[in-house]
Backbone:
């Protein structure tokens, strides 16, 4: 006979974790966007063809950088942090008050973490104006460059 035990303590902990995550999403306004909705936002923001970069490249880049999550935060081994849907780096493009920064986009990193993606899009445009262009993103170099990107826009009514 198999015996199951139920622990209120674990359930309460799980509920508290879930509530904390939901609270943070509501407070920051962060959200994971659906692929086609994100592609439409990018297109409407002038990203298709910006500096010769196709819409599919932008969608691929953000898929692998953040999985379309506006609230994504990742800490790097050099002490810098990547923020938002494009994973903009605090050492070069935004200031977080922790990392010495060039602040090339002249913004607070926290502005990259909301569902209002205009700041993030404008900063991404600034990044690709530098000589590295879209190659500044490791995920693009590793996952998108020289790949068939048609699946990133497949089924999207653009």
Residues:
């Amino acid at each position: 006979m198999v015996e199951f035990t139920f622990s209120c303590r674990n359930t309460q902990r799980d509920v508290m974790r879930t509530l904390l995550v939901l609270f943070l999403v509501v407070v920051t306004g962060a959200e994971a966007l659906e692929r086609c909705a994100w592609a439409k936002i990018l297109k409407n923001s002038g990203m298709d063809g910006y500096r010769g970069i196709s819409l599919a490249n932008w969608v691929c880049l953000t898929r692998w950088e953040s999985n379309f999550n506006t609230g994504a935060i990742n800490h790097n081994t050099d002490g810098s942090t990547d923020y938002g849907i494009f994973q903009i780096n605090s050492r070069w493009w935004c200031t977080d008050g922790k990392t010495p920064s060039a602040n090339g986009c002249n913004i607070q990193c926290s502005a990259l973490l909301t569902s209002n993606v205009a700041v993030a899009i404008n900063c991404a445009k600034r990044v690709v104006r530098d000589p590295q262009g879209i190659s500044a993103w490791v995920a693009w170099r590793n996952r998108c460059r020289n790949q068939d990107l048609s699946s990133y826009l497949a089924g999207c009514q653009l």
The mean pLDDT is 87. The helical segments are 8-28, 35-44, 55-66, 118-129, 138-144. The chain has one domain: 30-152.
